[in-house]
Write a structure and sequence with these properties.
two-stranded antiparallel sheet, rod-shaped, alpha+beta, 5-stranded antiparallel sheet, about 50% helix, single chain
């Protein structure tokens, strides 16, 4: 109760709220072991920026991201911000603004902490709200600590971009690897196909390059052996053809001589017969 303390006007000036929240301590005054009084001291938290800034700096080390503090802290009296380092759109501390109904119902009415993603004034924060209790264990307010969500969104975006880049590079490398592998397999097969066409056109001197010791290389070597055998057989056939041609020429000479001899014999026998 701050009635008559002169603090009401200060509270009204800070957040438009006549009530105030104080942190305090009481020390007993003893006389001969008898309690004769006490000394009570307190500090008004309404507008106490040093307190919330100290909380923020202790948790987040006064870190900034894109010109904004990474962390923020707020003290609520009920659902009203009485001290905060959350800034409004004009760059002023958002004292006098209120928390969302969802948070107020859970923390103030049910006395349970609230953790989650919260839109604080004009920015999304990853937030934690805890109840503040008076000496009679009544919930009279909340303390809030929040961390800027955009920092993690950007980290996630960079991570996704990095993963996509890795996937893209992996796909390109896989494509290049598959291309060279397929080329290594299909290249010799294409050479065999072209060699077969040469062979079908009668070019028995065409050979296929043999590289490696795989199945395609063995097939290429077999093709070269076959082509070599066909080449030798054709050479043998040509040799036999030449021999037959020579034999035919000799037979023609013999036949011609034979016919001349028969003509001579017939002429010689014709005169005596006549």
């Amino acid at each position: 109760d701050i009635e008559g303390t002169g603090l009401v006007e200060r509270c009204l000036a800070i957040g438009g709220e006549p009530r105030g929240m104080l942190t305090g301590a009481a020390v007993p005054i003893l006389d001969g072991g008898q309690l004769i009084g006490m000394i009570q001291m307190g500090k008004l938290l309404n507008g106490a920026v040093d307190e919330v800034d100290r909380i923020r700096d202790a948790v987040f080390a006064d870190e900034y991201y894109n010109g904004k503090p990474v962390g923020t802290a707020t003290v609520f009296l009920g659902d009203l911000r009485i001290s905060t380092n959350v800034m409004d759109k004009e760059g002023r501390r958002a004292v006098g603004t209120r928390v969302s109904k969802e948070v107020a119902d859970q923390v103030l009415k049910e006395g349970r902490s609230w953790t989650g993603r919260a839109f604080v004034v004009d920015t999304w924060y990853l937030s934690q709200y805890d109840p503040i209790r008076d000496p009679d264990d009544n919930v009279i307010g909340m303390v809030y600590v929040g961390e800027l969500e955009q920092k993690y969104l950007d980290i996630r975006a960079r991570a996704v971009a990095l993963y996509l880049s890795i996937i893209l590079v992996g796909m390109v490398l896989a494509f290049l690897l598959s291309y060279f592998v397929i080329r290594g397999i299909l290249g010799p097969i294409q050479n065999l196909s072209e060699a077969t066409e040469h062979l079908s056109r009668g070019d028995l001197n065409h050979r296929v390059a043999v590289k490696g010791k795989d199945e395609v290389s063995n097939l290429s070597a077999s093709f070269n052996d076959m082509a070599e055998q066909l080449h030798r057989q054709r050479q043998e056939i040509k040799r036999r053809q030449h021999e037959l041609e020579d034999l035919s020429d000799r037979l023609q000479v013999i036949n011609r001589n034979y016919m001349e001899m028969l003509g001579f014999v017939a002429h010689e026998l014709k005169n005596p017969l006549t």
